[in-house]
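Sample entry (263 residues):
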Amino acid sequence: MLSDLHWAARTAEDLNNLAQRDAIVVLPLSSTEQHGPHLPTGCDTILTEAVAERMARLVSHHRPILIAPTVWIGLAQHHVAFGGSFSVSMATYHALLRDIVTSIKTAGFRKVLLVNGHGGNISALHVLTDALTQETELAVASTTYTLLPNQQRALEAILEDQLILQHACEAETSMMMAIRPDLVRTQRLSEAFQPGYSKGDASPLSDPLLLWTSFKAFCPSGVRGDARRASAGKGERLLAVAAELLATKLIAGEPWNRQGGSA
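Predicted structure, serialized as C-alpha cells:
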C-alpha cells in the first residue's frame, strides 16, 4: 500500500502545494532481471522502493519530500541470456528519464534525486545526471544507495561472506528476507552462490580494462557472491544503514547546498 509520501497517492492539488513548498522529488531507478534461483526478477525494484520509503520517512520530519513512481526497467543486457529480464538501450533510457524529469519540472518541482538500486545503471547515470541537468535546467542529483559514503564499513560489519554488495547475494537476499520473505525461495538457497567466489572479489563488469561480458558467462548460477548465510536480521540492518546515510545527507541540504544554491 502506498503511503502519503508517494506521488501516486496524492491528488494534483496536493502535489501543487508540495511543489510550492520546494519538496524534493525522489525518483527510484531499478531493473527487472534475473536474480538467481531464489529471488524474484523484481528484486531491485522492491529493494529500491523500500530504501526510498524508509529514507523519505526520516527526511519528512525535516523538509517536504515525495517519492515518484519507480522506473522499473533499466540497462540489463548483461542479464538477458538467463531469460526473464527486461532491458532498454542507452538512447531509450536517456529519453525516458529526460521525459520523466521534464514532467516533474512541469509539475513545479525544482529538486530531483535519482535513487538507483541496479548496478547496470551506475555508469550511465554518471553521464545522464549531467545531461538531464543541462536539458531540463533542474537541479538533478543522483546516487546509488549501495555506494553511499561510509556504507562500505557498514557492509563489512554486517556481512559474513562478502565485503561489498554483489548480485542476488548475501546482502540482497538478506534485505528481501527482511521485507518480502514470501518471495524468497529458501529451498533454493543451497544453490545461491558463485563457485570460486572469494570474499571481496569485484565484478568483471567493473574491470578498468573492460570487455562487455554476459553475466551468465562468469556467473552461471545467476548469483554473484554467496547468499547461503543471508538472514532477515542482516537485511534489516542493511536497509536501516542505507536509509539513514542518505537521509542524513538530504536533511543537511545536500547535495544542492554544495553548489551554493538554496536547500
